[in-house]
Amino acid sequence: MINKKVESILKKIWPYIVFAIVAFILISYQIQKHTTIVVADSYFHFSRFYDAAEQIKNHNFSYFQMNYSFNQTGRIINGFYGPFFAYLMGGLLLLVKNWFNFQIITTFLISFISSVGMYLCSKKINGNTIISTLVGIIYMSQVKLWSDGSTFTSISSMLVPFVLLCGIRMVTNHEKPINWIQLALIMGIVSQIHVLSIVLFIILLLPFFISGLVKAKSKSRMWLDLLFAVLITFLLTANIWFSLCYAKLGENLFNPISTSMTGGTISLRRFTILTIVVYLIQLVYVIIHWKKCFLNSFITSLAVVFGVLSTKIFPWRLIQQHFPILKETFQYPRRISVLFIPLILIALGITANEIVKKDNREISVGVIVLLSLVFLSSYNRTIRLNSFYTVNTFMLNTEENHRQIAAVRSKNPGELFVKKIITEPDYLPKYKNISSRKAIRVYSKNLKDSNSRFKHKVLSKGRLEISWKGKSLKEITLPLVIYKRSQLILNGKQVGNAHKNAVGMPRVKQLVGKNIAILAFKTSSLFKTLVTIAGLSWIIISVLGISLTIKERRNNRSKV
């Protein structure tokens, strides 16, 4: 009896065990070398998470003003960029103590969750556990590892399968195409993590919605469920939309650094030769069997569209000429590949299942072997890339690199940012019409050697104090960033309209002797109300969602 129970449990969970093992092996060399990879966006996001961690640790919360990181300048980052997720990551950092543990755990979890999401998507369509498991591990091996640069492409890749679950329901469940709680929760989670992903995922769901609406038995109910989902999403993300409105209407802010969109497209080198061949076979198969399976043809067509959009085939040079703002906001068309890869893999799973169902043992084994080879080739590539970053992240034998190596292993995560100026211009106030690149030069110049001259102290109620000794009566530029709702007090007196440079750093007249400046950010009562609404909405909708899920499973069991 016990053996049968164990066997039944193992039959259900073995794919998840496989995902965990594969995810662990992916980062095993990094674990062995005990290396924290700090490249690309690592400093930017680690700074965000460190600030949130310090706020939690010191019970001194400041939703907008960054007091512990970003050179303690009072910049606004988390308030505009995934605030709740930043606090979640900050809490995890406090638990695991250092950046190495943090990176290993988060990389493992993101890879594991990505494969689980793809497995659930594939299983929902074809029902074949082995094929769905292979699709899950292929997906894990083809998305960018979080540790290899800490870019949010990895986060988007983790989330997109769960969004696709909502899309697949729209075209397969004609009775109730939209589960409004499910859709609202996943879109709410995405919004609290990465707003740009919301735009991509809405674009992804649009063709699913249109197709589902055509086939829905009750179109009015589908529209009504969509309306409920949108309204609930707005409640779950009330804090996000207020911040965005403030950013666009209340402030003039610098965008990220402008890039060439043609240079930011995906390359064929992103995939192994075998992967490309199999994807082409999938396309040929769908063209030949176009009318055989609507879902396969539909998903493959979407994959082709998003695949083309993420490459140089699409005229991005012409697009950026007519809409130059995209070079600073969207930046990299390769981001669209986070939609292409899961779509083509789901379609590949459908094709594999169709072939296996023909009961030809030799062909079925051939399909499984081919998918396994695709996984192994992609997996090998990802492991080699992670190994390269592991070896080369702090390769130079310099004093700075030795300091960084010690910092990522230290139980004080803040050591990583000592003498490090975060050079991203994102969300700096724009008081002069200059480029983002020039803004960073102005910002960096005024922060150079500021740590040796100014002492920083975080006060209660999210205020930031800097102090210094003045040798003469003269004007100096403070290493602080002032926004329209910022309040600056200098030597006990509130500074009204202080002269500010291009990036909002105030120029004030110091006194001889000790000087103290205190920076605070004043939030409105409306914002505090919206944060409360968002927090309560998460509690209520989560409890409701869990209750309805349990009820639905009980009903399904009773029917069986």
Q: What characteristics describe this protein?
A:
7% strand; transmembrane; 3-stranded antiparallel beta sheet; 560 residues; 8 strands; alpha+beta; membrane; 5-stranded antiparallel beta sheet; transmembrane helix; Cell division protein
Q: Strands, helices and their partners?
A:
Blueprint: H1 2-26, H2 28-33, H3 42-58, H4 83-96, H5 99-126, H6 129-142, H7 152-172, H8 180-193, H9 195-215, H10 219-236, H11 238-250, H12 273-288, H13 294-309, H14 316-322, H15 326-329, H16 337-356, H17 361-392, H18 399-409, H19 436-447, H20 450-453, E1 455-459, E2 463-470, E3 475-477, E4 486-490, E5 493-495, E6 499-500, E7 506-509, E8 513-521, H21 525-559
Antiparallel strand pairs: 1-2, 2-8, 3-7, 4-5, 4-8, 6-7
Please tell me about this protein's structure.
The chain crosses the membrane at residues 13-31, 76-96, 102-121, 128-146, 152-171, 183-210, 222-247, 268-288, 294-315, 336-356, 362-379, 530-550. This is Cell division protein. Keywords: Cell cycle, Cell division, Membrane, Transmembrane, Transmembrane helix. By secondary structure, the chain is an alpha+beta fold. It contains 21 helices and 8 strands. The strands form 2 sheets. It has a 5-stranded antiparallel beta sheet with strand order 1-2-8-4-5. Strand 6 (499-500) and strand 7 form a beta hairpin. It is globular, with a radius of gyration of 26 Å. It starts with a helix and ends with a helix.
